[in-house]
Amino acid sequence: LFNSGILVSSGGTMTNVAVSRNNSMTISSGGIVNKANVTNGGKLSVSRYGVVNDLYVQSGQAFADISGGVVNRAKVSSTGSMHIRNYGAANNVTVGKWGYLWLYGNGTVSSALLSSGGNMNIGSQGLAENITISSGAYVTVDSDGRMNDAVVEVGGSVVINKGGSATAIIENGGVVKGDIGENVTFAAHTFSGLTL
């Protein structure tokens, strides 16, 4: 468990890190953390060229700020939140119940699963690709936000506000709502081995 102000920078590597109880940790250029668990008001910041492999952000309003850094594999749940901005990126993300994922300012996420109770907001200049939105999950695409290649399962919801964009969307029983001025395109459904 780390106190406030711990810094992992160029050439530094840490494994099995826990950040909790209003403490914080920053991973900057060249720093690498393998397996980080942020809970109960803890804060993790990943700045430009910092890397986290296997990040868990959960419970007690835990917070991760990915500002120019990279996260490979993450789970956000139980009032935890992760913000991705300033050309930050995350790959293979799961957003569980009461988890919140925010993308804006050229932040991107690729390959994300939103399960029941998971939430994602794609703000200005945010980009989400290869997304699965399960029953009970909710996505909002705001002005200048983009979502590409998404599957909206039964019970999942997507709202695209004015100026937002969503392309190659498969509405697999879910709900996609658009505002005036949004841009939405749907992928064609393909059936194989179907007997009627």
Strand content: over 45%
> What structural class results from the helix and strand content?
mainly beta
Which shape, going by the Cα principal axes? elongated
State the low-pLDDT regions, or none. 190-196
What is the strand arrangement across the widest sheet? 1-3-5-7-9-11-13-15-17-19
So how many helices? 0
The average pLDDT is: 92
Order of helices and strands: EEEEEEEEEEEEEEEEEEEE
Number of strands: 20
User: Helical percent range?
Assistant: under 10%
Write down the Rg.
17 Å
Written description of the protein model:
This protein is 0% helix and 58% strand. With 196 residues, it is mainly β. The strands form 2 sheets. It has a 10-stranded parallel beta sheet with strand order 1-3-5-7-9-11-13-15-17-19, with no helix packed on it. The chain has a 10-stranded parallel beta sheet with strand order 2-4-6-8-10-12-14-16-18-20, with no helix packed on it. The chain starts with 5 loop residues before the first strand and ends in a 10-residue tail after the last strand.
